[in-house]
## 1
Amino acid sequence: MLVTLHRGVLCKSSNLGADGFLNLLQDRGWRACARYTSGVRKFIAPLAFALPLALAGILTVFGHNGGTGLTWNREISRVFFRRCAECHRDGGPAFSLMTFAEVQPHLGEIKHQVLNRLMPPWGAVKGFGDFRNDQGLTQEEIELIVDWIEGDARRGNNANALPPIPKFAKPSSFSKPKGSLDVQGDLVLVRSFILDGLFPERLEDGSTARVVAHFPDSHVEPLIWFNQYNQRFQHPFLFRQAIELPVGTRISGIPRNSTLVLLPGKKPAPRK
Ligand code: HEC
């Protein structure tokens, strides 16, 4: 029941429809997605056909067990173990969110943090640059967590459904590789550079900066869009595929009082 809107915002198709229908959903607490829809009403008309289907879906879900059917033991623990536990555990940098009992007192905060993409802390806007170490939640994971919280946040009765407790490697510390290039302000490359990733060595808290590569052939490649940056969560951003920057490429958008390190990589394999 997912429908893709412009800019990759995903909404349940059930949340799209005439205003009256939106209000009905809002009454049911489905505000999360309805919020997104207000700005995209003009996209709604072509989607109207999805409505009857979606309604049937809702009736099925609510009709059967009076809730979402999602439980901590089955679905939600898996998302938390995968996405939160690395930090939110005993001995980690943040309070533990490993068990149902530990999660329960924080439900309101968790909903706020995941809906606003504040947790897990990533520091950049999704979809602007493509990163292989992106820890941000997918839209589906966000919906899963929020639906679970809004639908009674049940634990479930079957403890056997819980996944095994994950093991954690020691956090790897990052050091700049040889051949890294420190950049402040705009830069025009005087030699070609294979860009594997970016490391914000110095960037003020709360910074927003959109960094873009302008190729000599006037092609423009989005690199990264820092948003509400928080130094506390400093980490490298590694591209899914290294980007070849030819001589003469101009990199713009790095604030003057900041240092962004360009991390060198290997020549990418030709795309198939
Ligand atoms: C990279 C480490 C890391 C990851 C991954 C992470 N967190 Fe956090 N989180 C933190 C730290 C550090 C804090 C601050 C803790 C403190 O102040 O004691 C925090 C704080 C929070 C808070 C409280 C925020 C506030 O200010 O009220 C919530 C809620 C939260 N995290 C939920 C989550 C959830 C849910 C996930 C997974 C979907 C997650 N976090 C993933 C590190 C992380």
Note: Strands lie at 2-4, 10-12, 181-183, 187-188, 193-202, 209-214, 220-226, 237-245, 250-252, 259-264.
## 2
Amino acid sequence: MGLTENHRAELETIFSHYPDRRSALLPVLYLAQREYGWLSDDVLREVAGVLELELTEVTSVAGFYTLFYKEPVGKYVLEICNDLPCALRGAEKFVEHACKKLGVQVGETTPDGLFTLKTVMCVAACDRAPVMQVNLEYHENLDEARFDQMVDELRHSAQLSAGSGQPAIDEQKPQTDTRSLTSEAES
Ligand code: FES
């Protein structure tokens, strides 16, 4: 199992912070998402096995939180807040621009697998809108030019790392890895 094989020490550290394994569900789900890019049924099954929980317990928790991805996402997940305070500061127009720049609708991933565009509810940076998280890292007081620049830089960085065979610069894990336990086991 990839999670226990590749992250045994990290799992032990996580478990040491909780009175029992089941209490460690959220950090282990996050670890699993880092490992696989998203939480497929096979991954949820693996997490349930690691924590000795029922699959339904794991599935219900994973389904509750929007930061757990239940379908494949791009290497970079761009989450723009369009909640009311941000909307008053131009978030809707900013989202429109993002769609145009990326050539996708909200919820979609660019054909090259690099960017998934999402809108989210308040991320507690209302006074610095438009605000966007890129793989959970905050970028605030954005404008369209800065957005374009960020996208171009990320795309360039991804192309460089792909060409060099080196891992991407971004430490926030690439999200395109759609491996599952099953496919890993088969390889
Ligand atoms: S409404 Fe967007 S950060 Fe609060």
Note: The beta strands are 76-81, 115-120, 132-134, 137-139.
